[in-house]
Amino acid sequence: MFPCGVCGNELKAGTRVCPYCGTHQEDDFVRKPVGFSHKTVNLEFGRPIVEVALRRLEQELQTARQEGIRVLTLIHGYGSSGVGGAIRHESRYLLADLIHKGQINMVIHGEDFRAKAGPVRDLLRRFPQLSTNVHLNRGNRGITIVVL
Q1: Above 70 in pLDDT, residue 26?
Q2: Which domain covers residue 25, as residue numbers?
Q3: DSSP assignment, residue 31?
Q4: Contacts of residue 54, Cβ cutoff 8 Å, sequence gap at least 6
Q5: Could you tell me the sign of the dihedral formed by the alpha carbons of 112, 118, 123, 124, in that order?
Q6: DSSP-assigned letter for residue 29
Q7: Which DSSP state fits 18?
Q8: Whether pTM exceeds 0.70
Q9: Are 57 and 24 within one domain?
């Protein structure tokens, strides 16, 4: 097992394309930058109902804190209706509540994850490794960036 050089998720030896973020791996072992830990969590995996996805989100946040992860990219999807799915809506509602309670530091919605946006500029100064994130400047409404 080795971490993806972009998203930090664990990959099996010999993996050439990360199944989480889609980046091509250069070596069989890529070191994570010191002081920066990032993980991508796919809340849609297995097509769960909203309650299951929210429990997984809470569990992943707790695990990330324990492992020293600083930034999470949540893949919650946008929904097939074209107006945003239930997992997206409810996970963002939960994240807003956690910000209010002081349990997480910042949330950046995928549609706002643009290098020229003020909060994103600050985030990229803190974590320059995110400048290679495949979702940056794509306006992806199906993801949310969480800073712990």
Answers
A1: no
A2: 1-30
A3: P
A4: 87, 90, 91, 94
A5: positive
A6: -
A7: -
A8: yes
A9: no
